[in-house]
Amino acid sequence: MVVNIFIYLEVFLSLVSYTIALYDNLATLLDGVHSPIAHLSTSNFYTITLIICLAMPSVWLVNLSKISFLSSVGVISLILLFVAVALTPAFSGIELNQKISSFNITKIPTVTGLYIFCFASHMVSVISFASVTLVYVTVGLLGARMFGAKVEGQITMSMPKSFAVTKMALIATTLTPLTKYAFEVFPIGVGVENSLPRALSKHTRRFIRRAFVSFFLLVVLVLALLAPQFQNVLALTGCIVSFGISVVIPCVLYLRIFVETSAASKTLLVAVICVSSVLGILGTITTGKSLVENM
User: Fold this and answer.
1) What CA–CA distance (Å, rounded) separates 248 from 269?
2) pLDDT tops 50 at residue 37
3) Quick check: helix, strand or coil at residue 153?
4) Rounded to whole angstroms, how far apart are CA atoms 184 and 149?
């Protein structure tokens, strides 16, 4: 039950982050474009509402096999974004001469929340972790050297708007969140439908399921409007949920299952649980305070 709550909470907060990212990149992409859609981009409410309405039919699906190909969009977008960032200093005229900020111990809890969120969604394999680590470190260093302390929470917001490669990166980061709604909400819809009494007809259960996921997306919309700070919501998700799902709960379950494990292993696992819990709590307080101050 506790694990399910953590998983659903992670899905909810992740969707809020995706919605914020989608609005930010779409608004930047349409900036200066004179069209009815571009006019809507001047308002957070109209733009994000339009996005949710477009995504709504996809969460009503009960069989995702026909749109399974969309799962590859995330990988393709990551590659496009990586190439775009790498090409920016080479062809846009921006030099890698910015000074990287010195180590700030007060930001460790928040930064740890971002890191744990980024790595928590990947399968546990050497190749997977090595690949994403290389991408994260490279993009992070390039962003820091190009823009310094002025870099935005999303690097696409800092890249030169007139640069053709920036448009490619914006399109990629706009499409990625839009394709995630159906896949993220699907397990919640299945859980709701399975929890309904079997006495109800199949059509009634499907109707309730679709009504619930629709309401779920509307709540996501409201929270995205209230807390439009992408990096803070992402860090909060990592501190509240990812630490629990990826670190604390697995360690606790391991200790409960393998009771006869060595004293050294127990000590290490308890230390990991304690450190993760402290970082999660401090990060939640820090990012939560920052979100409230910026509302």
Assistant:
1) 9
2) no
3) coil
4) 33
Sign of CA dihedral 278, 17, 214, 78: negative
* pLDDT tens profile 184-214: 888 888 888 888 888 888 889 999 999 999 9
Residue 191 and residue 262: Cα distance in Å, rounded?
38
The C-alpha atoms of residue 24 and residue 14 are separated, in whole angstroms, by 15
Please, what's the b/e burial string for 238-252 (b: 16 or more CB within 10 A of its CB; e: otherwise)? Answer: bbbbbbbbbbbeebe
148: phi then psi, degrees, rounded to nearest 5: 60, -140
Under 8 Å between Cβ of 6 and 241: yes
Structure tokens at 153: 């929470």
Q: Which two tokens stand for residue 4?
A: 């399910």
The model carries a pTM of 0.79
- Counting beta carbons within 10 angstroms of the beta carbon of residue 206, is it exposed (0 to 12), middle (13 to 18) or buried (19 or more)? middle
* Amino acid present at 49: T
- Shortest CA distance to 182 belongs to which of 132, 233, 216? 216
pLDDT tens digit string along 224-272? 877 767 778 888 888 888 888 888 888 998 888 888 888 888 999 999 9
Q: Who's near 220: CB < 8 A, 6+ residues apart?
A: 12, 15, 16, 19, 52
